Amino acid sequence: MKKILLFLLFPYILSAKNILISDKYNILDEKYLSFENEEDLKRELNKLTLEMLNKGYVSSQITQVNGEICVKPGYINKVILKEANADIKKKLLGLESLEGKILNISDIDKIVSEYERLENNDIKIEIRKTPNKDFYSDIIVNNTVKRKLKFGVVASYTDKFKYNVNLSILQPFYLNDKFSTNFSILNKSKYVGLSYSLPIYSSVIDLSYFYTTQKIKEHGNSTSHEVSLSVSKDLYKDKLKNLSLETSTKLNISKEYVSDIKMKDKIYFDNDVNLEYNNVHVFKNSILNTNLQTKVGLGYMYNKELKTQHFPVTFDVNANFKTKYLDNITQVFASLNNNNDSRYMFSKDINSINDIPLNITDSSYALSTCFTLKYPVTEKDILLQPFVQLAGCVAKGEKKYINLGMGIGIDVRIKDVFAKLKYSIDKEKNKSLGIQIGINK
């Protein structure tokens, strides 16, 4: 193509030193070809072609049309999905909107990011020139979907046993969707949760239902029903800079009854903005995985029974660092105007096997950190990972709260089966022995 263009431009070489390039779509920064001879012209064409590629215009070209040197954009003709429910998924993911646009590598990133939401997608993308249609290309997405099932059981013991059973199915309808459910028995309370999420036009819609029942000595049984609808969307995503910005909006309706008498009727409306940074640093003999998250939330809480309203504000910073032998999780939390509502408070439960080994009461302000020292041993398909945890927290609710804790355990993984055993104790002598068993298939 360059040789043909040089031939077409040859008459200009003897008569001009600057050629204006017609660029109606502002693909190039430089609008002139400046040269003294044919070698200069080759160099300038290479530079401008490289500029287009660096900007992601992988199918656009510099060419000659009717004696004029111009940038000819390359367009997207069709986005073709080769998988189950391709037509429905194409509409749900909003990929039809790419057709007719100038092709940029960011469009490919958009497609990849939609499929990366779930781990059981295996995609290969091909850009193929459209037959008999100059400057048009088809984007062909070949995706192999393996319906994935995750099942887990968590049991822990303090004064009594506590259980949690959870199940999730990735892509039950092959639409990049997810269904999950969990059931818990915690002392005198029982909890059931159901959730279904579906991506629609670069957003993810999640519909959830929660049911909780608890025995109260003096008043009988307390039950609550909760329905939640949330919409999350990526506002910004840059893989090269490892940055992403996401917003999430949630509407939540909660009703609580004691002995069939309605006690609480609340409406929650929350909007969160989350900035996340991920990176992998490679040193001589080690790899450091870094994950930083900053979340700011503004909520609206209305109690229909008391006819009161509040506007809670939350600020949350999470810093996770992982190496082969040492992990650290540090969290800073602050909450204002929360009316002592637990959903806007900071809390950690020693009885949850995935939490740090501390029992922390609900607090408006908190700083917590946990170090995990581990020693992974791999033999064929078996991973054994004994670990020791040390944790500390400074928090403030009605009064200042300081706690220290430690945990010891082992993590075992055999192909798709995993198990975890952990014993925890904190400064206040809260103890917990927990076991977790699951299948990730």
Automatic annotation (TrEMBL):
BP GO terms, sorted: protein secretion by the type V secretion system
InterPro entries per UniProt: Hemolysn_activator_HlyB_C (IPR005565), TPS_OM_transporter (IPR051544)
What Pfam family is a match, any one? Answer: ShlB
Q: Name one GO cellular component term.
A: type V protein secretion system complex
Q: Identify the residues that the record assigns to the Haemolysin activator HlyB C-terminal domain, covering every copy.
A: 137-320
Q: Which GO terms describe its molecular function?
A: protein transmembrane transporter activity
Q: What is this protein called?
A: Haemolysin activator HlyB C-terminal domain-containing protein
Which organism encodes this protein?
Sneathia vaginalis
